[in-house]
Amino acid sequence: MARAVALVATPDGGGYWVAASSGGVYAFGDAHYYGSMGGQALNAPIVGMAATPSGNGYLLVASDGGIFSYGGAGFFGSAGSIHLNKPIVGMAATPSGNGYWLVASDGGIFSYGDATFWGSTGSMRLNQPVVGMAATASGHGYWLVASDGGIFSYGNARFMGSTGSIRLNQPVVGMGATPSGHGYWLVAADGGIFTYGDATFWGSTGSIHLDQPVVGMSSASSAGGYWLVAADGGVFTFGSAAFYGSAVSYLNPSNTAHTLASGSVLGVYGGPEDPPSVSDFASTLGNHPRFAMDFLDGSSWSTIDDPAQLVSQWAPSGYTMIWGLPMLPNSGASLATGATGAYDGYFSTLANALVARGQGSAIIRIGWEFNGGWFPWAANGQASAFVQYWQQIVTTMRSAPGANFSFEWNPTRGDLGVGDLADYYPGDAYVNYVGLDVYDTEWGSYPGMPAEFQDMETQAYGLNWLASFSAAHGKPMVFPEWGLGWGTCSADGQPVNGSGQVCGGDDGVFINEMSQWIATHNVFEATFWDYGTSSVDQGSNPNTAAALRADFG
After folding, report:
1. For the ranges 252-261, 302-311, 464-473, which has the lowest average pLDDT?
2. What separation in angstroms does the CA of 477 have from each of 31, 324, 470, 551?
3. Residues 432-459: pLDDT tens digits?
4. Which residues constitute the domain of residue 347?
5. Distance between CA atoms of 142 and 135, rounded to whole angstroms?
6. Band of the pLDDT at 256, cuts 50, 70, 90?
7. What is the separation, in whole angstroms, between the first and last Cα of the chain?
8. Quick one: 353 and 485 in the same domain?
């Protein structure tokens, strides 16, 4: 079975490629697909990958030293016809894109194009084999790393430290250099991260149970974060590195139903300004969700555009953040005025503040549930103003230096009498993800599961509509909020009637139905509402907790 062997980020950090041992290449975010060896016979498995400086191409290297070039990546030679003492285990490209180095497990270096040979461990006796390499920013040196974390530096690459004398829980499998060339990260098979020089620790999977070992890493261009990739194609993001998708479903098609509905899409909201609640949810789940969500304070413009206190509480968490952004404060503003650009200054201040605090790649959830009547930005009858104002906000926030935000557009489930939701869509250029809030609740009569879930699928502006609308616009789907209902509730999804809001209570069947739907559709993120009547904290809703563990743990 093919396994992931490398992840390489695009130059702007807006995407990445995942390479597989079979030669397959999977592109996410702004990474373009230029070709692969997938489905073709290889003499030896692919073991590494490198991209051009502009991101207009990439190279794959096999363990026999064979080189495969795609897009704008040039071929400058290979070791495919040379007898190697030890197999190739990795590669690095020169800053110009006109050359590359290959490294073997004995530390032997093979240089091509404008890549200069600065030295090797090929003639040394190593305690453990070399597993990877990284080049300095100038290309005038490189580091080699062994599986015990030993570091060997050549040219202008400075030795900053190593784990060579430390007892490791799992072997080191790769490394990444900081953009300055004055530091580096080492990553172990359990996702443990070791930092040296000016490399910052942004988080790790060292304490998380992984389905498959981590096999590599790539750092963000700003040095504000990094990605880890596991052998099953799972991707883990830290700091400013954003999640754009994983290769799990491509590399493990027979296990898609479970793996897609596991940590790669799961998020959680545990209450306002409450990071510990996410850790509690992770303990209940037996797995760490990838996303965490919180809401900016909509009391006034000053609380909307100054997120310092809120962001500081989440800064060390390591989760990819989703920020609920009120379009308007609680009073004194309107969609019509926002459409003129009158409020752009507030969103410019906010965007710059988020970037400055390491949230430049966060997901921004603007004006959620706009088709309801319960928020100041309720858009019924104001579709044009809503769209124009949304476009103003996105354009303004994207203009902040260092910004790489993604934007979610999401009504709540059902026909609430506002007309065609397509009229409220701001346009593909202003939206990254199309979503729907889905709760296990109805008004007056709840038919019980699975009839209720079938209605969720087929009703106007339900799940089937979401799948169709998102496909028509080429956008992944999201569930920014999904969870149990409230009001007069039955037990475990049984039928119930009432004079107001009714729901299925502690409904494990709803969780299972949603999990299956998520696993079989193009869903990027699904954030569970672990709060209030939907909470699974401290033994609440045990049927729901058990279903979450089974489906997402």
Report:
1. 252-261
2. 19, 17, 6, 19
3. 999 999 999 999 999 999 899 999 999 9
4. 259-552
5. 4
6. very low
7. 23
8. yes
Q: What is the 3-state secondary structure (H, E, C) of 125-146?
A: CCCCCEEEEEECCCCCEEEEEE
Residue 332 lies in a domain: yes
How much is the pLDDT for 254? 46
Same domain, 512 and 441: yes
Residue 318 falls in which region: left (phi positive, over 0), alpha (psi -120 to 50) or beta? left
Buried b (16+ CB within 10 A) or exposed e, 281-308: bbebbebbbbbbbbbbbbeebebbbbbe
Which residues pair with residue 46 across a beta bridge?
62
The pair of structure tokens assigned to 238 is 């830290």
Q: Is-above-0.70 flag for pTM?
A: no
Residue 170 lies in a domain: yes
One domain, residues 377 and 264: yes
Same domain, 85 and 156: yes
Beta bridge partners of 48: 61
pLDDT value, residue 252: 65
Beta bridge partners of 354: none
Same domain, 218 and 263: no
The average confidence (pLDDT) of the chain is: 91
How many domains is the chain partitioned into structurally?
A: 2
Both 67 and 196 in a single domain?
A: yes
Q: Which of 40-44, 204-208, 332-336, 380-384 has the weakest average pLDDT? A: 204-208
Sheet holding 151-155, edge to edge: 130-135, 141-146, 151-155
214 found inside a domain: yes
- Which two structure tokens, joined as six digits, stand for 13? 């950090």
DSSP 550: H
Distances 71 to 90, 109, 113, 370, 377 between C-alpha atoms, Å? 20, 25, 17, 43, 45
